[in-house]
Fold this sequence. Notes:
Blueprint: E1 2-7, E2 10-13, E3 18-26, E4 28-39, E5 46-52, E6 57-59, E7 67-72, E8 77-82, E9 91-101, E10 107-111, E11 115-120
Amino acid sequence: QVQLVESGGGLVQAGGSLRLSCAASGSIFSITAMGWYRQVPGKQRELVAVITSGGSTNYSDSVKGRFTISGDNAKNTVYLQMNSLKPEDTAVYYCKGVVTTTPEYHEYDYWGQGTQVTVSS
């Protein structure tokens, strides 16, 4: 069993910053990648940013230059630094981990419970 726990969401004014954290724990053999997704009511969940265990990153065009994803492999934790926030960044942000579990050595996708980010204009 693997758990992903997010923290750091909240309410911020446009132009402000927030930092999200996501820590994975449990029966982890290895983590291939971790990422952040977001979802607003009535829309599909969309990729925000992802980082591999090797440090490669990918961002959606809407957040490039404003958001930075980073990871701490030793702590199985990923961070999302969000700067220059806009009202359209308002969403529930979910953390996802691509995790190989032990002792099965199978790779699964695991999701956190989500954290609300609200940007006021």
